[in-house]
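COMPLEX REQUEST
Ligand: iron/sulfur cluster
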Amino acid sequence: MKRRDFICGFSCLLAGAAISEIRNKAANKKTSYPKLSDYPELEEGLGSINIAAASHCNLSCKNCDTFSPLSSSEFVEYEQLKKDLKKVKELAPDRDIHIGFIGGEPTLNPDLTKMMKFVNELYPNSGKSILTNGLLLDRMSEEFWKEAKKGNYSFGITKYPLNIPREKYEKIAKENGININYDYPQAPKLYDLNTHEVIDENYNQEGFAWSKNILDLTGSQDYIEKRYTCPHKGIITYTRGNLYYCYVHAHIKSFIDYFKVNIPVTKDDYIKIAEVKDIQEIDKFISTPKPLCRFCKQCHNTCYGGKPLEWGFSKREITEWTMG
Ligand code: SF4
Ligand code: SF4
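STATUS: Structure written out below.
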C-alpha cells in the first residue's frame, strides 16, 4: 500500500502553530520534550475505519508501507469483523463512518465480498473504498462487483510498473458503473510480474515519487509532536479486533517479528473494540498521542535528500525501512 493523498486538516495547521510556541518556550526552559499536558487537546471523533483485510500481499514492493513482504499470511476474520463493526454501530448509531478495505492486499481475503455485503447493510449511507494493486480484480466474482456497485465503492488502484493485463477488470468495472482511480508511482523501468526481469528500460512512467517511511529503531522521536504534525495519523486501521492509530501501528508486528527488533507495542497503542464501553473512549484514543510513534520518523524522502527512490521488488532487507 502506498498512499500519497493524505491531507493534513486545518486543525493540524492551528495545532502546528500552537506547538511551535510550546516548543519555543520549552527550548528556552532547556527541556527537550514538552509535557503532554502542555499540548492543545484535539477533539476528533471516529470518522473512518480502514479494514486491513489481509496483512500480506501478492506483490512484494520494496519499502512497502505496511511491511507486507515481511508478513505471514494474516486475514481479518469475517465473524470477528461483523461483531466489532456491529458494536461500533451500536455505540455511534448516527455516525456515517467511512469504511475502507486496505491491505496488504484486500482482495486476497476469501471473505471480502461477504464483508462488503455486511458493510453495505450496516452503513448504507457511508462512503466506502477499496485500495488494491489490482492483480486479482479480473478474477473477482459477479457478486463482488454487485456489492461494489451497491455500496458505491471507490476503487483506488496503484498502477505498478508491471505487465498486468488490466483491460478485463476495467471493462467489468465500467459495465458496473464503477469508477476506478489510478495512482501512478514514478517508474523508469517496466518489469515482468512473474520473472521480476526488466522488460522495458525506457518505460518512464510519470507519477508520485516512490519513497520509504523511515523507522527509528532507537525510539527517540517526539511522539507527542507527531500527534499534531504527522499527516498519516488518523488513518485508523482495523485488524485483530483492534483499532490502530495508523497503518504503521497495525502492521509493525510483521517488521518486529521478521527482524527480531525490540519495538514495544503497548496497551496505549491500540484499542480493543470488544472492551470499549462508549464511543467517547474510541474518540479519546484517536485524539491521544501514541508511544509507538517514537519509532517512526515519518519523513519519507525528506529524510534522504528529497530524492525519489526507484520502485522495485523487495529483498526483505532492513534498510528498506530504515535510513540504511
Ligand atoms: S502492492 Fe506493494 S506496496 Fe502495496 S501492499 Fe503490496 S507489497 Fe505493499
Ligand atoms: S507511526 Fe506515528 S509518526 Fe509514523 S506514520 Fe504512523 S502516526 Fe505517523
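REMARKS: Residues 3-33 have pLDDT under 50 and may be disordered. Residues 10-28 form the longest helix (19 residues).
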